[in-house]
Amino acid sequence: MAVRAATSDDVPHLMGMIRELADYEKMPSSVKLDEATLARDLERGAFGGFVVVDDESHEVAGMLLYYLPYSTWIGQFMHMEDLYVRPAYRRKGYGKVLWRAAAQLSRDRGYVRFQWDVLNWNTPAINFYKKCPGAVDLTEKEGWLKYRLDAEGIAMMAESTD
């Protein structure tokens, strides 16, 4: 297997895996992104990623996508948005290789945090993360909950007078 940084040539594969992951996560209609936007955002550095290519099939077998948020406590860090290995390529260590590539990049860039989210029902992913050296469940350890505003919520908040 070969792991490398994702490039614009990978966008069709990335888009396919994003859709596959959304199906798996029971949210297929949530993907509003198109290939052109994904390619533009990759080129402008809005996110980065790695792909793993299977040696036998020469197919892109998996991806890890990340972006760089900022913490007022520690500075810039890496947030893993998606880690996905196509079903035919699972249980071959591809997820671990993608994970290691992101951890190495984080270390090499001097980031002191690498974080991610996981759905509470995704037992295979949770079990994978529990085996990762140093991984900590922040909900359990520190009590963090996650909130968000969607487009409608943003509009409501922006127009609120309270």
UniProtKB/TrEMBL annotation:
UniProt KW keywords: Acyltransferase, Transferase
Superkingdom in the source lineage: Eukaryota
Gene3D superfamilies: 3.40.630.30
Any single Pfam family the record assigns to this protein: Acetyltransf_1
Record-level Gene Ontology MF annotations: N-acetyltransferase activity
Domain called N-acetyltransferase: residue spans: 1-159
Family listed: Belongs to the acetyltransferase family.
Protein name: N-acetyltransferase domain-containing protein
The organism's taxonomic lineage, starting at the top: Eukaryota, Metazoa, Ecdysozoa, Nematoda, Chromadorea
